[in-house]
Amino acid sequence: MLGVMKTKTKQSISKPHSQLRTIGKVSCITVALLLLVGQLLLDVLLVRQYYNQPDSTVLTLIEEAVRGLYIDAPIEPQSGMVYFPEAKLRMPAAKDTFTRFMYSYNDAADNSALTVTTSAIINTTSAHMWSAYASSQTQAKKLEAAFEAVPALQSCSRGVQIYLSEQPEKGHPLFTKQVKDGRTLYAYTETACNQGMSSLKESVAAIDSY
Question: Which of 5, 53, 83, 173 is 20 to 30 A away from residue 23, measured at CA?
Fold first, then answer.
């Protein structure tokens, strides 16, 4: 009799614990599902907010993203030389006083890359994007036409790209040059981009180490 009472007592104790564990698992699953649904709703709202932006805002963001890749190259007033400090290179400034040189530098371990461009080139390629948007006949096609001009904006804004080894896939070879410190520079331009490049090419051709 005592053994039966002990067995019933154990069963009565274990049953509430089992129920608690079951309730705990259900609660965890419910919370996880609520969090997942909440995240999905947030993602949908963010996507809707992005696509509901005015077209001009989207195009402005694209243009600012391209401009943000480059910084102004410092110019030494006494010598009139344009410097690229990270690359230890310099070149003469343009003959006209309106050209503003900009650059980016990627210090890769195997092959550093210096990209030299001008504000005028970026302005011109950006203008093509805006012009494509404005010239489309229907509102539905405006943004599509502008997006078609984005690859040209990205590629042409790169101006002249300078590497320390040959890069045959990078476009049109501009020159190969050994500078004073012994490095050999390989310069390239985008094949389809020529507008506004003449003064840039002239200055970059005289680039040298310091």
Answer: 5
Query: Which of 186, 189, 37, 180 lies closest to 111, judged by CA?
Result: 186
Q: What is the pLDDT of residues 148-195, one digit of tens each?
A: 999 889 888 999 999 999 987 878 899 999 999 999 999 999 877 877
Task: Give 175's contacts (C-beta < 8 A, 6+ positions apart).
Answer: 185, 187, 205
pTM: 0.69
Output the CA angle 102-111-106, nearest 5 degrees. Answer: 35
How far apart, in whole angstroms, are the C-alpha atoms of residue 159 and residue 122? 9
In angstroms, rounded to a whole number, what is the distance separating the alpha carbons of residues 90 and 99?
16
Q: What kind and span of H or E run contains 189?
A: strand 184-189
